[in-house]
Structures are given as structure tokens and as C-alpha cells.
Description:
With 185 residues, the chain is α/β, with parallel strands linked by helices. Helix content is 44%, strand content 17%. The relative contact order is 0.20.
Amino acid sequence: MKDILIVSHCFLNTAAKVKRFKEQAVLEEESLRRDLLKTAADRGIQLIQLPCPEFLMYGAVRWGHTYEQFDNAFYRSRCRELLTPVMQELKEYLAHPEEYRILGVLGIDGSPSCGVKYTCRGDWGGEFSGRDITPVIKTVHMEEGRGVFMEVLHEMLQENGIRIPVEGLFAREKERAFGMLGKEV
């Protein structure tokens, strides 16, 4: 039997991430990501890479966003469009339980798109020029909840009757991610 884990795009391709400046957080996430990849490879776990809606819509050189900026009909529709082939793939694997086991989905906590337990929220938006943006920046914070892409994925899993675990990659709570691979930290 082949075990399969669905992962957020930047789990395998960190080049798609928004440029980050908190070096310690970047190092912690990178260490956890590498440990998880090594464990998955050592256990023969197959990985399905989700598309990155942020990269596909805004490219490589983009500002970080908040949940509120993505919480609109246009972004949700594009997420649904990007996830449709993933749902078809999942249904095909699930149709053969004697050969395949879906371990779950691993998102990236803190992301306004792929956060699972935590997402970036705030009143971020508008022009920079001619404006004191300090009060706007102060509204940006981490909050419990899913990112928009993960919300749409959750909806589509429910619509298709697919019940699988969905966890987030978050260095301070690494036991959740490793638990999906059947490994204790």
C-alpha cells in the first residue's frame, strides 16, 4: 500500500513564498520542513503538491497579504478552480483503498491562504503613497483559523464526502505535522 500526503505548494517549493524578514521564524520553519521531508522520504510516503494560488495570481515579487484581502468571491472562485483537479485525483486514489491511503493534508500555518490552525489577519490594503501606514501595519496579526485556500479545500472535501486530517506546518506545534506521518517527536 502506498501512503500519500497532500502538501501546500511551498512545502516543496519555498521559492514560491513571500519574502520573509523574521530570520528565526524562517530558520525554524525550514528545519521542520526538512525534517518532515526526510521522514516522508524515509517512510516512502508519496507527496501531492497543491498549487499556490498566491503565486499563480500575484507572481514571485509580491507583498504579504492578509485573510481579509483574499476573502472575496474572485479569490475563492480561483481557489476552487485550482483545487478541482486535486479533488479528482483524491477521488481516484480513494476509489482504490487496497492500494492507496491518504494520510491527510499539510498546510502552512500563518498563511492567509494555506493556514490551517492560524492565519494572518488585519486591515491591510490600500495605497502606500501619501499615507501613514503605521496604524494599518499595527492591525496585522496572527489569529486562529484557516486561510482562504484551506477553507475552500475544506468545503470541497466536505462536498465530496472526503474525511481526511488537515494539519498545519508550524514549528512551535511540530507534533501535529509529524503525527500525520505516524512519527512522534
